[in-house]
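re: ur question from yesterday

yeah so i grabbed the chain u mentioned. its 304 aa long if i counted rite. heres the sequnce exactly as i have it in my notes:
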Amino acid sequence: MRLSVKTPAKINLGLWILGKREDGFHELETLFQMVSLYDTLEFNTECDGLRLTCNRSDIPTDETNLVLRAGRRLQQQFPERQNLHCQIHLEKTIPSGAGLGGGSGNAAGTLMALNQLWDLGLTLEQLLPLAAELGSDVPFFLVGPSAIGKGRGELLTPIEPSRQFFVLLLTPRLSVSTAEVYNHLNLKLTSPQNNIKILSKIFSKSDVASLGAHLHNDLEPIVLERFKEVRVVWEYLQTQNALGVLVSGSGSTVFGIFSDSRQAKQAQAQSVAGNWDTFLTETVASVAEFLPESVLNYPKADRA
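ran it thru and got these structure tokens back, copy pasting raw so excuse formatting
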């Protein structure tokens, strides 16, 4: 059997770091939003073994890639099954190491696709903890398009999407290490007031202008200080009439939000001369926009 699945990028409209956990991770609260920039995964079960290829030579295709790790995790879940084979091809468009969750989305897409192709019968409730094992952001891509994330980001509360608005993504051609950024985080300098409730309320009202004024990221000062290429992009976007500008997650992508398509396209046209990759996207209103219905048709959880 063959199946093609698109997996989106995400941005963090708000990110507050609340403290260090005993397991070494950080406690956080964030507002996730999917945007219309996609990778594509092609699955073919008419093969032997589990293999991954990619259109980009700089993307690993071994066990360090979350796509392959997601497939292996499902194989481990069903050790009695001998027919769990698949050839997977990843067509990569989302920049890696850019704070856009490309790898996490790929992992979630793999879990959903192989759950169908291998006829595993896992419910969404059963897939979510497997996703959390793979990475903090992976569960979001199972439940998006918009959600509040707590804990490491894996404890999710889906929320109603805002009306769609435009998001201009500018990604300098460098990879930012999330671990490095967190290692330089001074919790005494993070926002003393947690405004996730304020941000989510503004989001739910589809007040894009006010949303832009309330964008927040506790990691942004570190990224801007340590990576001058990101600061150049951030300063450039500040001149482009965006309603708000923010570093996404731990970087390196900087995004600007717009409610007016003309201004968004103008900002994109003027940005292409820069030493960065440019993507004009929209917020995703429903995962049904990019995922086949068969993948979303999970078995019902047994409530008995």
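noticed a couple things. The chain has a mean pLDDT of 92. also The radius of gyration is 19 Å.
anyway ttyl
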